[in-house]
Amino acid sequence: MSLENDPCHNHLLAALSEEERKRVFPDLELIEMPLGDTLYSPDHLIKHVYFPTTAIVSLLHVMESGASAEIAVVGKEGIVGISLFMGGETTSSWAVVQSAGYAYRLSGQRLKNEFFRAETLQRLLLRYTQALMTQMAQTAVCNRHHTVDQQLCRWLLLSLDRLPSNELTMTQELIANMLGVRREGVTEAAGHLQRDGLIRYVRGKITVLDRKGLEQRVCECYRVVKKETDRLMGGHPTL
Amino acid sequence: MSLENDPCHNHLLAALSEEERKRVFPDLELIEMPLGDTLYSPDHLIKHVYFPTTAIVSLLHVMESGASAEIAVVGKEGIVGISLFMGGETTSSWAVVQSAGYAYRLSGQRLKNEFFRAETLQRLLLRYTQALMTQMAQTAVCNRHHTVDQQLCRWLLLSLDRLPSNELTMTQELIANMLGVRREGVTEAAGHLQRDGLIRYVRGKITVLDRKGLEQRVCECYRVVKKETDRLMGGHPTL
DNA sequence: ATCCGTATGTACGGTTTCGTACAAATGATG
DNA sequence: CATCATTTGTACGAAACCGTACATACGGAT
Which of A20, A39, A146, A233 has an alpha carbon within 20 to 30 A of B64's alpha carbon? Predict the structure, then answer.
């Protein structure tokens, strides 16, 4: 995976025009992203944006009590650091590497220069931002109305869509932090999925055995986000 | 209120440059917005954007089951229909008038033309969009971690910030739809607030008696959104 | 092979919210 | 004033989730 790295493994970079690639690609830096790395945190000025290829990044909010909740997830279909071109420069959320891997990094200034040329990149980034908003909105709805079992299915599928294999390195404790529930709640939900043969997990490794089964059990939230993302991000399959 | 209407009652319109106003204001239409009016719904092409002055609009998601949840609220500080300039043209949410009033309407094409001139309006709209994302993210977190009591406080304050008076026309049933909880849950929570002298309500009219009291009881979510909105929308107080 | 830190499993009472049912109060209408 | 639809109040068991405590299981290190 790390052997054959190519900016085009990120779907946004892959969709740029020839001229934009000529301008942008030379300035991209390949960055290794270890699990748990913090790309940015509230009130910290963002200096770079990240285009993940194999890594997955969680955007999460942490409350005064220490409780947390994931509000969106970004993988090879997206970009981390949208507040740079949106104009805020910082956000009230954290960006944390949820699954180790690689990303291409670009300086914030370079990105802004490209963005305000108003060519393909701008159109892509704005549409991607709308897709991200759909994900956040659906997360809010899911938090309100669905069970931990359903949310775990959703979370697994969202991760799976951004990974090359059907195996993810993730403890139940970490999943609990993402979903904003107790670790025991995840143990129980995961137990149900394992009992029914949909997944298998051993000490921080989860293997998805029956993706179709997960899709049957997941709440509508997953489908809504996927459908809208596909629509917004155009003909090319985004995930 | 309807006697002295002026586009500048909307904060985004008020913040435009002199030249932009000259171009845009002649094309604004003052629109009366009755309670419950639907401005757009999923998969319906959006033809106009709305700049509320006295009206308040809820962005809400409705699930297959019919259950709903508000994901953000837009008043005189914002604009309804951002998917127009974001590029999606439609959204997966509804925009419903939560509090009757007025808004200025602009054709989608006119807005897009202005947006892509990349002047003040673009900067404003992008930053506003980021503020909206903060609101959505915080709604997700609040749905996960806070009680109905706290969420009702948040909702009341968000509404209050967008209204001219301390009285809102709203049944508990409708609030329940917004918060995505049972009507009885709102009855109970509102009962607590009334018992403690923070509000008074009679059949669809809620009067806020003690705003400070609400602010003391509300969860951090309200403050986070307000602070971030103020930061993003610049020196001028946005609410 | 044993030890030890980490990860997962299980259990129990408490709280919040849900679903449902029905009663009471309000305000508009005739 | 009487009627009626709407809004609000109350009650009760069920379900989901929480907080806590503790047991078990795995896997790397000595």
Answer: A233
CATH topology of domain A7-142: Jelly Rolls (2.60.120)
Shortest CA gap A125–chain B (Å): 9
Cβ of B147 < 7 Å from strand C? yes
- Does 1.10.10.10 match the CATH number of domain A147-218? yes
DSSP conformational letter for B7? G
- B220 neighbourhood in chain A, CB within 8 Å: 63-64
DSSP E strand stretches across A8-121: 29-33, 38-40, 48-52, 56-62, 68-74, 94-99, 101-107
For chain B, domain boundaries: 7-142+228-232, 147-218
Which letter, b or e, does each residue of A63-77 get, where b requires 16 or more Cβ atoms within 10 Å of its Cβ?
A: beeeebbbbbbbbbb
Reported CATH class of domain B7-142+228-232: mainly beta
Mutate to test the interface with B, among A92, A128, A226 (most CBs of B within 10 A): A92
* pLDDT by position in tens, chain B (length 239): 445 789 999 999 999 999 999 999 999 999 999 999 999 999 899 999 999 999 999 999 999 999 999 999 999 999 999 999 999 999 999 999 999 999 999 999 999 999 999 999 999 999 999 999 999 999 999 999 999 999 999 999 999 999 999 999 999 999 999 999 999 999 999 999 999 999 999 999 999 999 999 999 999 999 999 999 999 997 655 55
Which residue among A87, A93, A232 sits closest to B127, beta carbon to beta carbon?
A87
